[in-house]
């Protein structure tokens, strides 16, 4: 069923469950925050890609205002709660400064493939080890979703948007696994080369062949 949703297009992809802090300075989005506070509405962030507003986006809930400035600017905390598809886009929502759209929620199958999850976990551990980000792995819950790690895998904005388009966790797992299997050998080879460069010029304790 379609409903009207306030829209805040941005040059980024937000995943369900993600917490996002924003600095609000434009009058139209200051109005949006006021409406969130006074009317309890949510708003959507459709990624702005290729000079256009995407027809897919993430619905956001305002958690709170962290700081209000004398200028009227605001620091806010938000949380992503779901994915939607825009059926009709309005540059201005009725009677408002900010954009809006008729949207329909996108259903999501969150059930993971256990075998794919195990392979992804092994790859992510290696990736974080190479990048010196072991702490991120320690902070992950055992039942993590692809969304929980997606921003830390070196994906391009287009690849992140592909994840947002995927309507099942299994689809997302397959996309992430393909990406990890492509970049990990490159990263490992880069680390090997860096080590060779570091060793170049050092005194080497080598055992000569016995012949």
Automatic annotation (TrEMBL):
| Residue span(s) of domain Lon N-terminal | 4-182
- Please give the Pfam families that the UniProt record associates with this protein: LON_substr_bdg
Superkingdom is Bacteria
The UniProt entry, under SMART domains, shows: LON
This protein's name? LON peptidase substrate-binding domain-containing protein
This chain's source organism reads Hymenobacter yonginensis
């Amino acid at each position: 069923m379609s409903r009207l949703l306030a829209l805040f297009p941005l040059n980024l992809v937000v995943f369900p469950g993600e917490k996002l802090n924003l600095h609000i300075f434009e009058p139209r989005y200051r109005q949006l925050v006021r409406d969130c506070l006074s009317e309890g509405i949510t708003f959507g962030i459709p990624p702005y890609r290729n000079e256009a507003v995407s027809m897919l986006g993430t619905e956001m809930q305002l958690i709170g205002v962290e700081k209000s400035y004398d200028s009227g600017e605001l620091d806010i905390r938000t949380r992503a709660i779901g994915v939607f598809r825009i059926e009709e886009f309005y540059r201005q929502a009725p009677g408002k400064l900010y954009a809006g759209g008729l949207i329909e929620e996108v259903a999501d199958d969150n059930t993971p493939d256990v075998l794919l999850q195990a392979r992804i976990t092994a790859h992510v551990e290696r990736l974080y080890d190479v990048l010196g980000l072991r702490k991120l792995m320690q902070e992950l819950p055992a039942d993590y979703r692809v969304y929980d790690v997606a921003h830390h895998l070196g994906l391009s904005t287009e690849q992140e948007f592909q994840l947002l388009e995927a309507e099942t966790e299994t689809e997302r797992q397959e996309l992430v696994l393909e990406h990890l299997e492509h970049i990990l050998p490159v990263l490992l080879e880069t680390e090997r080369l860096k080590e060779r460069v570091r060793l170049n010029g050092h005194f080497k304790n080598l055992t000569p062949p016995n012949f």
